[in-house]
Amino acid sequence: MTPEQFKMAKSALSLSNPDLAKMTGLHRNTLNKLDKGEGKASTTQLVRLTLEAQGIQFLDTGEVAAGPGVALKSNREE
User: Fold this and answer.
1) pLDDT number for residue 27
2) Which burial class, exposed, middle or buried, applies to 48 when counting CB atoms under 10 A from its CB (0-12, 13-18, 19+)?
């Protein structure tokens, strides 16, 4: 889960870091680190599983969504 995917998933579910902290039992500062691409692999996995349980589908390059959504082009213009 990239920082961009994390932010997009929270936005799709209308969740803030405090909301997600309540759902995961993590401190919101820990989630702030994920926004920056920092944090432990185990934390990232817990958050990813929590978001997937809420209906989020994380896609790797070339994968197709199972429903409506958005994707970020890897060659986006700055």
Assistant:
1) 94
2) middle
